[in-house]
Write a structure and sequence with these properties.
This protein has 218 residues and is an all-beta fold. It contains no helices and 19 strands.
Length: 218
C-alpha cells in the first residue's frame, strides 16, 4: 500500500512518501483513514481487516508504520470500509461478497469485536454512515437490489435493520445528504434527542439514481 504526500509549488505535485507492507494475502479493495488521519484501515480479498498507526511522521521509514491489529472479518472479499465519527468511539463498518454488512468496535486497545450485522441476499457493495448529528446509523446497499439501515439506540442496543427493495437490479452506491438538506423527518439520535434524517441517494446497475426520504408509517 503506497502513501502519497501532496506538495504545492506553482502547480500541484504528488509524490510517494511511503509503502506499507500490509501482509494481506489478497487484493486490497479499500483503504480508509480515520477522522484524525492517524489510523489507516485496509481490507482485502482474503477477508481480513488491518488497522495501521500512520501517525509517526516520516512514513518513508518502515518502522514508523505499525500494524495495530488484523482480524478475519468476512468469509470472502471485503469491498469497502467506513469509519464512524469518533464521537461514537472507535467504530468501523465493513461489507463484502459474503452478503454481510458488519459493524465493529474497538472494545479495548486493538481488540475489535462485532457489535451488529445484517445479511442481504447478494453481495453488499457499499456502505455509508449518516452525518454524525443523526446518531450512529449505517446504510448498506446490495447486489440483490435492496438497501438496509442499521441504527444504534441510546441504550447502546441496535434496532432491527430496516430493509427495502430499492431497485430491480443491483445497487452499487449509496450516499447521505447533509442534515441541512431540507428534509423535516426527525429520529432519535444517540444522545436521546431528535435529529433530522436527511435524504439518501442510491445508484444501480439499472442505470438509475433514486432519491429517498424518511417518513412516518402513518
Amino acid at each position: 500500500l503506497r502513501i502519497l504526500h501532496v506538495k504545492r509549488y506553482n502547480s500541484i505535485m504528488i509524490e510517494k512518501t511511503g509503502i506499507i507492507e500490509t501482509k494481506h494475502e489478497g487484493m486490497i479493495h479499500d483503504a480508509q483513514y480515520d477522522y484524525y488521519g492517524k489510523k489507516l484501515a485496509t481490507c482485502s480479498s482474503d477477508g481480513t481487516i488491518s488497522i495501521f498507526d500512520v501517525s509517526k511522521g516520516d512514513l518513508s521509514k518502515g518502522d514508523n508504520v505499525v500494524r495495530l491489529s488484523s482480524f478475519k472479518a468476512h468469509n470472502g472479499p471485503i469491498w469497502q470500509l467506513a469509519w464512524a465519527h469518533p464521537k461514537y468511539g472507535n467504530v468501523i463498518a465493513s461489507c463484502g461478497f459474503d452478503r454481510k454488512v458488519i459493524v465493529w468496535k474497538e472494545v479495548k486497545v486493538n481488540d475489535w469485536q462485532e457489535v451488529t450485522s445484517h445479511e442481504h441476499q447478494g453481495s453488499v457493495n457499499a456502505i455509508c454512515w449518516a452525518p454524525w448529528e443523526c446518531g450512529l446509523k449505517l446504510l448498506a446497499c446490495s447486489a440483490d437490489g435492496t438497501i438496509s439501515l442499521l441504527s444504534r439506540r441510546p441504550d447502546d442496543s441496535w434496532d432491527k435493520p430496516l430493509s427495502i427493495q430499492a431497485h430491480d437490479m443491483g445497487v452499487n452506491c449509496v450516499s447521505w445528504a447533509s442534515v441541512n438538506s431540507g428534509n423535516d423527518y426527525f429520529a432519535e439520535d444517540y444522545n436521546d434527542k431528535y435529529a433530522p434524517l436527511p435524504r439518501i441517494a442510491t445508484g444501480s446497475c439499472d442505470k438509475s439514481i433514486k432519491i429517498w426520504e424518511f417518513r412516518d408509517k402513518d
